[in-house]
Amino acid sequence: MSARAIHSAEDARRIAKRHLPWMVFDYIDGAAGRETGAARNRAALDAMTLRPRILKDVHHRTFSVDLFGASAERPFGISPMGMCNLSAPGADLMLARLAARYKIPHGVSTVASTPLEQIIDVAQGHAWFQIYFSGDGAGTFELIDRARDAGYQTLVLTADVPEVGRRPRELRHGFKMPFRMGPKQFIDFALHPRWSLNTLLNGKPEMANFQMEGYRFDRTESRARADWDTLKQMRDRWQGKLVVKGVLDVEDAVMLKQAGVDAIQVSSHGARQLESAPAPIKVLPAIRKAVGPDIPLFFDSGLRSGEDVLKALHAGADFTFFGRILQFAIAAGGEDGLNALWQVLSDELSIAMAQTGLTGLTDLESQT
């Protein structure tokens, strides 16, 4: 029933808020500080307009785009998100099956709640591994080697978290990874029995990539030692595609291009790290102008609809990623909910393309 009630990303969020414990919902939904950064992202996207066109034959439309030499059936993929199985047991694999079906990348988080080897297998190879540089880097490079051995072809370095941002909503609930149960958490879970029983039957979500001996991860550990030499070491070690995510500065983007990365992802981490960061959609055109047309630019942060995707593509992105709204869809209606929202996003994009006179997504002119 809940899946049939999803007609927009906001529907998915509203239903998920009812189903999820407060601690889990606020972990997924929350942003840094007073959350003005998240509001800034949304306001910037809302302020952008598209150029309606009439009397163009747009009967046949295609969504496919080139992505590292392969054809993706949608111009949007799945952002790396930690502990997705908090939204529902098996969420990671629901996302992996979606990625396989549409041949789009499933960003697999360092702190995924399903082993990275299992996810890429279910995704039929359509998975990219996201990495943080943590501590002295020894564990980071071990994990990179493990991803390579599992068959990952693309590595995504998330570079915008030298220290983990403070998100008061999750802190108020005492959110920890792994979970620590206290009276507040017990009451929270008791008031959401469907989620709690489901989780109890399927096992408490864990940081699955660190269940093997020798692999440890502290979510709060400083990542501040990473520098340009770190990137060089990573570039030398990783023979596949290397994407750097979390870029909001033109100078940094130009330096990344010079350093030989394969793509740059313009992102504010969903406004979860630095509250005062600029809205990514506002800096995207300047970064595109600075790096030129030849290097792929990816985009995430604040996207909530197919129209948002089209705005980002017009502003200079080659590909986009959705994040927390996919978890909300899963929390709202399981795999049916995820598929329902994916269809909504596809329909929104298709309609926006028709109304702006587009039959395809290559060589878009700036219309914002």
TrEMBL record:
* Key words of the record: Flavoprotein, FMN, Oxidoreductase
* UniProt cross-references to Pfam families, sorted A to Z: FMN_dh
Q: Which residues form the FMN hydroxy acid dehydrogenase domain?
A: 1-368
Q: Where is the active site?
A: H269
Binding-site residues for glyoxylate, renumbered to this chain: Y27, Y132, R167, H269, R272
State where FMN binds.
80-82, 109, 130, 158, 245, 267, 300-304, 323-324
Q: Name one GO molecular function term.
A: L-lactate dehydrogenase (NAD+) activity
Q: Does the keyword tRNA-binding apply?
A: no
Chain segments annotated as transmembrane: none
Q: Give the similarity note.
A: Belongs to the FMN-dependent alpha-hydroxy acid dehydrogenase family.
Q: What is this protein called?
A: Alpha-hydroxy-acid oxidizing protein
Source species: Sulfitobacter geojensis
